[in-house]
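Milestone M4 deliverable, item 7.
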Amino acid sequence: MSDARLKWILRRGVAETIVEAELLKLLESGKPLRLKQGFDPSCPDIHLGHVVGLRKLRQLQDLGHRVVLIVGDWTAQIGDPSGQSATRPMLTREEVLVNAKTYMEQFFKVVDKDKTEVRWQTEWFSKFGLEDVIRLTSKFTVAQFLAREDFGNRYSTGHPIAITELLYPLLQAYDSVAIEADIEFGGTDQKFNCLVGRELQQMMGQRPQQVFLVPLLVGTDGNRKMSKSLGNYIGVTDAPEDMYGKVMSIPDNLITDYFELLTDVPDEEISQYKKQMESHSINPMVVKKRLAHEIVAQFHGTAGAQQAEEHFARVFQKGEMPEEVVLLDVVGGVMLSAELTRMGLTKSRSEARRLLSQGAIQIGDETITEDMDMARIGKGRKIKVGKRRFAST
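Output delivered:
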């Protein structure tokens, strides 16, 4: 492994490493390391926001290291707000199993399955008794946990914090002890939890894990982190045409970030694109097409990316009706604005409502001017958004 390659892995698409000198020494030791990646199966699907960290895992796997994927089947029944300022609903065991199955199928679209060890929290927590829980809680103070930003903010504003939520970082930390993790990976919103794991390992006589944090990817709306619940996400299982179209919908100021976090395009080339866009010597759409092609090719191959590019040019640039239309689920209780956003036909629900008020959305031959329940729309009717975006129910 060259020093240049290792430096690239540790710098490109990385927010922070703790402790960098120790991490570098470990990676240079030649010893296969255990890379901890946990997931809380509260949602079954993976989007490009998750892929930022998964790409790092794959890069280190290719250097001979092993990923230990921890299925948070225990903590999923507690819920971790992770900056959401609200508790997540507890899941049933059946929901956890269904979500975990789908999650892992998508996880291995990026990470090498043959170099991954899958562990379930119930392996160790099912043996925990009240005495074990009390012993674990005695190692930290409430003041330490209120230092976590989202807990501190909620406490200062009078918003409730369940005791179960305070247990979450402890349980995640104990995962690191159970598998003897060398490095834990997470987004910047997981920094506190990862550091608790590092500290608990030291208390338990283990070498403290290093922490590898990646940036939170901003979603297609250009404002908030990518999230399925916000409708600003690009899913790894999206059809090539949908994935390509959603990438093309991101604001121009996110282009270089997406290149850095989601592709292997050389830094020099990205820097050149940035300079050209700043000097207006290149149309951002040209650069965005390159980005969309790179991302789609990762999940659908070069041929899939090429077909998606041709579809985009035919439908969105030339204004032709697509040869194949996306089928929208007609579900009662789901509003048209939310469904249009979910399908990537609008960037946000507010944009959808604005287009509705402007009379820019047609269902069949009828112009729709108000938001409505999807159940009222019915099947087999084409939806047209503006002049270039089409779907059907």
